[in-house]
Amino acid sequence: MSFDKNICSKLTQEQYDYLVALEQFTNSKIHFCGSIKRDDYFIGKSDIDVYLITPNVHDTLFKIREFINCPNHKAYYAKWLGQFTIDNLPQEYTFEGLCIKFKNRIIKLDINIYDEKYRQNLKLYHDSKHKTLSPFLVCCLIMLKSLYYNINLISHFQMEKVKCFLNPYLVEETDLESSRI
Fold first, then answer.
1. Rounded CA gap, 73 and 181, in Å?
2. pLDDT value of residue 98
3. What is the DSSP annotation of 116-156?
4. What global pTM score does this model have?
5. Per-residue pLDDT reduced to its tens digit, 5-42
6. Distance between CA 144 and CA 154 in Å, rounded?
7. Which CA distances in Å does 47 have to 10, 44, 61, 98, 143?
8. Which residues are CB-neighbours of 87 under 8 A, at least 6 positions away?
9. Most C-beta atoms within 10 A of its C-beta, which of 26, 87, 154, 178?
10. How far apart are CA 75 and CA 9, in angstroms?
11. Residue 129: what pLDDT?
């Protein structure tokens, strides 16, 4: 199993090995999204956003929990509205999945698990989201994250609020329903 060369360059060897082992253990391909696919990813500081698409969401969740030794209360169900563009026409689509936020000494992960039926629209959604960020916006994100990660001048809450202000498309998902499972 291999990851994109650009992604690999941003991972430590331990993180790479961890993700390869997770991918093999779950028998599900790991897809990357978020800042790790852009230039505003801060090595060793930013979380790594990944998603898995599987025919059996709960089986994959069980495997992930077993792999990362995650208690049941750390996973939650989420239903959200994503927006993307096809042929310059805005599209809205409802996604449902299971989510786990996980952190250890090696890696900080935000894992989303989706049913196979969302595969095509997830790809369209993430491709569309990635293409909408201008170089100027990415530069603004780098400066903002520097204030948070390197200088500690702003709080996490403030960083998230400014990110939303700069580009609501970064967080345009509308949380329709969310609950612990």
1. 7
2. 93
3. GGGHHHHHHHHHHHHHT--HHHHHHHHHHHIIIIIS--S-H
4. 0.87
5. 999 999 999 999 999 999 999 999 999 998 999 999 99
6. 9
7. 12, 8, 19, 17, 17
8. none
9. 26
10. 29
11. 73
**166 half-sphere exposure, CB direction, 13 A CA radius:** 21
Query: pLDDT at position 172, please?
Result: 46
List the structure tokens of 159.
């960083």
Q: Which amino acid is at 33?
A: C
Quickly tell me which residue has 């060369």 as its tokens: 5
DSSP 172: -
Phi/psi at 161 (5° precision): -65, -45
Q: Residue 144's closest CA among 171, 11, 32, 152?
A: 152
Per-residue pLDDT of 151-175, as tens digits, reads: 999 999 999 899 888 876 565 454 5
Provide the 10 A C-beta neighbour count for residue 31.
Answer: 18
Burial of 116 (0-12, 13-18, 19+ CB in 10 A): exposed
Burial zone of 177 (CB within 10 Å; 0-12 exposed, 13-18 middle, 19+ buried): exposed
